[in-house]
Amino acid sequence: MSPDSPRPPALRRFALGLWFLGLGVLGLLRYGMKAARDADIASDSVAWLWLAGSVAVCVIGIIDIARVHKHSRDHPDN
């Protein structure tokens, strides 16, 4: 990218991280819906795997957004 060209918008720079974060939030919503529907969520191993996977995907999205933000702050011309 040349120095005189404008920076891409934040949505484009953070697209992958936002995508992962959105998938994780949808998974957390799915877990919450199952927890609200079923009274015995503590013994449901599938629900716990869904929760763990959703949290992991959210963390990956947050890490990616933080990495891109740090890179764009350290290198303002990119």
From TrEMBL:
Any idea which UniProt keywords this protein has?
Membrane, Transmembrane, Transmembrane helix
Q: What parts of the sequence cross the membrane?
A: 14-33, 45-66
Keyword check for Membrane, yes or no.
yes
Q: What is this protein called?
A: DUF202 domain-containing protein
Species source reads Lysobacter niastensis
Q: Lineage of the native species?
A: Bacteria, Pseudomonadati, Pseudomonadota, Gammaproteobacteria, Lysobacterales
